[in-house]
Write a structure and sequence with these properties.
With 267 residues, this protein is an alpha/beta fold. Helices cover 50% and strands 13% of the residues. Keywords: Amino-acid biosynthesis, Cytoplasm, NADP, Oxidoreductase, Proline biosynthesis.
């Protein structure tokens, strides 16, 4: 089993670690979690994870090094592990928004193989949509990272120049879909349901819509056509939403998030 060090044990880092052991990708003892203050990680220690507040020491025995810190923390981390990463023995996986493979190699050395991965917070329940990309990694390493993230959801390999777009559509996208569910539940309250019932109904309806597309392998419009009839209530509601800019606002929000994601990291 590979030895994995996850630098930055926030939501994404911890969720990945727990997902890997839940799906028996590796044992908890094969994963080292780092954080500047590990005193509040007693629960992770009980689960069997190794803990460290020294990033340089933590990467020495790792086969895979996962960078999961905030963009503004990255330069300090790279300075700490510079010289400790062995190019032909270790693979670096970055889940940091707006940071290219070249940015990381610039700090760690051109020979280091780097793969970018962009999961979302549904990683916590094994339902992430993760995009991966690299400009120099070997095929076997891409396959290994694909297997790694398939333990916590679905994986798509894309060109690296689309990773910022993937951040907006998949990582930020979780918030967009959650907001639409929230809006649907508020609409439910407006038409007479209690808040908890309206939320449950909106959540299950959204889940059903997503599962319908995944299982039927169909296009949204073909499924929409099945529930719209001439002069019916569904088409009336859809048209009212479109008249008020629903699709346009959604698209513009994704585009703006992509623009902002591209500027998060400053060398």
């Amino acid at each position: 089993m590979p030895k994995i060090t996850i630098i930055g044990s926030g939501n994404i880092g911890l969720s990945l670690a727990k997902g890997l052991i839940a799906k028996a990708y590796c044992n908890a003892s094969d994963i080292t979690l780092t954080r500047r203050n590990i005193r509040n990680m007693s629960q992770e220690a009980k689960l069997g994870f190794k803990l460290s507040d020294n990033n340089r020491e933590a990467v020495l025995d790792a086969n895979i090094i996962v960078l999961a810190v905030l963009p503004q923390q990255l330069n300090q981390v790279l300075e700490q592990i510079n010289g400790a990463v062995i190019a032909d023995k270790q693979l670096v996986v970055s889940v940091i928004s707006g940071v290219s493979c070249r940015d990381i190699r610039h700090k760690l050395g051109d020979a280091v193989q780097v793969i970018r991965a962009m999961p979302n917070t549904a990683i916590a329940i094994g339902q992430s949509m993760t995009c991966i990309a690299s400009d120099n990694a070997h095929e076997q390493h891409m396959d290994e990272v694909t297997r790694l993230f398939e333990t916590v959801g679905a994986v798509v390999t894309i060109n690296e120049d689309l990773m910022t777009s993937a951040t907006a559509l998949c990582a930020c996208g979780i918030a967009f879909f959650l907001r639409s569910i929230r809006a649907a539940s508020q609409g439910g309250v407006e038409i007479g349901f209690h808040a908890h019932d309206a939320l449950k109904m909106a959540v299950q309806t959204a889940k059903g819509a997503a599962d319908l597309l995944l299982q039927m392998q169909s296009h949204p419009e073909s499924e929409i056509d099945k529930v719209t009839s001439p002069k019916g209530c569904t088409i009336a509601g859809l048209n009212e939403m479109e008249h008020n800019g629903f699709s346009s606002a959604f698209i513009k929000g994704i585009k703006l998030s992509a623009e902002r994601a591209g500027g998060l990291y400053k060398e």
